[in-house]
């Protein structure tokens, strides 16, 4: 059967996603201050080709055109993120009216076209002024985030009803503070576990604050996790143990903290190993726990985990001895990530068993490929279409098995600044020519439009 949007139940939400630092540009305009990604991307050697988000896709100046492009796609909703340093340039304290004006303008343009705005508060761009005080490793970060979340809800809550606190806290903590491949570029596993703890406390306390700030009847508050299956690459006990460790850090740490207000035993052991266990109060987490209205799931691939006792520790999974990331079987995207939609249905079913009443939204799914521009100017990105089609089909399969999934968002609307890969990886349904900023819908954009309208 050929699936279309109509095959899914009424109320299922289809959209596209982006993030502030990846698309906005205008980094020094209208009162915005630098974030950790400005600092990091301007650090020699931090990103491929030294690329940075100074201009990015210039969405800050072109958002009206981008909303028109979204309207042509026919999406129900658009997931974007808010730049903390546009709203609170000092990290805390005075609200910047120009920052608010930009996001109000964007939301009003979306709503005028019948597109529902969905905001992520934190997609990795901490104000640099707060990093200077230790960033997420500082326990005060919990209060800083609650203040920001409250200010954003106050200023925009009449226009935005669906809010996510964080995007992929695993990346924030472990790529930022341990492997160091993301801002702020640190390599201190103890700090990464502290950061993870503060992120989880900040999530719960921000949800509590947002429930009572500018409250609207249809407010829906949640968080977005990158739940990536960690599967043993072979039947050995070593691979099984390494995969359990990776799963505990990548998935269960955050899912358990969000859903149950607890940390897995394995993770408590790693916190101990890196000397920070006594700074992490499990009681504080248990006391802070708030229910969420949805759980966002980002899915790209499966991590296949092998074991070699002599392998160096992998920074994003600190404490797991001998874990080795194996080459995925079959096709890979330009990121080197395997194309394995079965992992998506597997994960959706797993989370539904864990928390049957929490609706799941796939907040990101998509693929980077070296798109060729044809002589006629057309970009025939058939590989991307196949990737998206197969993953939508995996969502369908998971639903048929009872998974509680209610939305699917393609990453990304536009080609954009892909973090440490700079502009060298393109995920967009719409191509951006970085010299002229011209937008050209790819074949995948036409495909998605037909999928949504047929
Ligand atoms: C996710 C990020 C998103 C984008 C995709 C490719 O981890 O949330 O910003 O970079 O990967």
Question: Could you explain the architecture of this structure?
Answer:
- The protein is of the alpha/beta class.
- It has helices at 20-23, 36-41, 59-73, 84-87, 97-112, 128-131, 141-156, 169-177, 189-211, 237-260, 265-273, 282-288, 342-354, 382-400, 443-453, and strands at 13-17, 77-81, 116-122, 162-167, 220-226, 230-232, 294-298, 303-307, 323-325, 360-364, 405-411, 430-432, 439-441.
- It has an 8-stranded parallel beta barrel, surrounded by 7 helices. Strands 6-8-9 form a 3-stranded mixed β-sheet, with helices on one face.
- Helix 3 runs parallel beside helix 5, helix 8 (169-177) runs antiparallel to helix 9 (189-211) and helix 13 (342-354) packs parallel to helix 14.
- It binds beta-D-fucopyranose.
- Beta-D-fucopyranose is lined by residues 19, 22, 167-168, 171, 226, 298, 364, 411, 418-419, 427.
- Listing every helix as H and every strand as E from the N terminus to the C terminus, the arrangement reads EHHHEHHEHHEHHEEHHHEEEHEHEEEH
The share of residues in extended strands comes to 5-15%
Q: Could you tell me the radius of gyration in angstroms?
A: 21 Å
What percent of residues adopt helix (DSSP H or I)?
25-40%
- Alpha-carbon distance between the two ends: 14 Å
Give the names of the bound compounds: beta-D-fucopyranose
Strand order of the largest sheet: 1-2-3-4-5-7-10-11
Describe the global form: globular
Q: Average pLDDT across residues?
A: 98
The biggest beta sheet reads:
8 strands, parallel, barrel
Structural class: alpha/beta
**Tally of helical segments:** 15
List how many beta strands DSSP finds.
Answer: 13
> Would you identify the regions where 5 or more consecutive residues have pLDDT less than 50?
none
């Amino acid at each position: 059967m050929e699936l279309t949007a109509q095959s899914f139940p009424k109320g299922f939400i289809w959209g596209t996603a982006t993030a502030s630092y990846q698309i906005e540009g205008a980094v020094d305009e209208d009162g915005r201050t630098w974030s950790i990604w400005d600092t990091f991307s301007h650090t020699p050697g931090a990103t491929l080709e030294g690329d940075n988000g100074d201009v990015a896709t210039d969405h800050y100046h072109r958002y009206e055109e981008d909303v028109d492009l979204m309207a042509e796609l026919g999406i129900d909703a658009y997931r974007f993120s808010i730049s903390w340093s546009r709203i609170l340039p000092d990290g805390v304290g005075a609200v910047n009216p120009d920052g608010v004006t930009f996001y109000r303008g964007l939301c009003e343009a979306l709503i005028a076209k019948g597109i529902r705005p969905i905001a992520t508060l934190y997609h990795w761009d901490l104000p640099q002024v707060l990093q200077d005080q230790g960033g997420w490793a500082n326990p005060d970060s919990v209060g800083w985030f609650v203040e920001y979340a409250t200010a954003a809800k106050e200023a925009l809550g009449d226009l935005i009803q669906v809010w996510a606190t964080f995007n992929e806290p695993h990346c924030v903590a472990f790529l930022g503070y341990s492997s160091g491949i993301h801002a702020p570029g640190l390599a201190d596993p103890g700090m990464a576990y502290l950061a993870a703890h503060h992120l989880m406390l900040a999530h719960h306390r921000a949800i509590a604050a947002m429930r009572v700030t500018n409250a609207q009847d249809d407010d829906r508050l949640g968080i977005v996790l990158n739940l990536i299956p960690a599967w043993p690459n072979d039947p050995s006990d070593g691979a099984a143990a390494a995969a359990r460790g990776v799963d505990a850090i990548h998935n269960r740490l955050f899912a358990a903290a969000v859903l149950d207000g607890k940390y897995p035993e394995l993770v408590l052991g790693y916190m101990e190993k890196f000397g920070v266990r006594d700074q992490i109060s499990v009681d504080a987490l248990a006391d802070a726990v708030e229910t969420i209205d949805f759980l966002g799931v980002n899915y790209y691939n499966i991590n296949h985990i092998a074991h070699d006792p002599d392998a160096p520790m992998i920074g994003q999974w600190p404490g797991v001895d001998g874990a080795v990331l194996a080459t995925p079987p079959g096709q890979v995207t330009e990121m080197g990530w395997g194309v394995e939609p079965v992992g998506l249905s597997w994960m959706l079913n797993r989370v539904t068993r864990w928390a049957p009443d929490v609706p799941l939204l796939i907040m990101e799914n998509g693929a980077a490929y070296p798109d060729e521009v044809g002589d006629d100017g057309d970009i025939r990105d058939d590989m991307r279409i196949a990737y998206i089609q197969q993953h939508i089909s995996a969502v369908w399969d998971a639903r048929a098995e009872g998974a509680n999934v209610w939305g699917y968002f393609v990453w990304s609307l536009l080609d954009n600044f892909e973090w440490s890969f700079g502009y060298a990886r393109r995920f967009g349904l719409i191509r951006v020519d970085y010299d002229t900023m011209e937008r050209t819908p790819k074949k995948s954009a036409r495909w998605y439009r037909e999928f949504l309208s047929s």
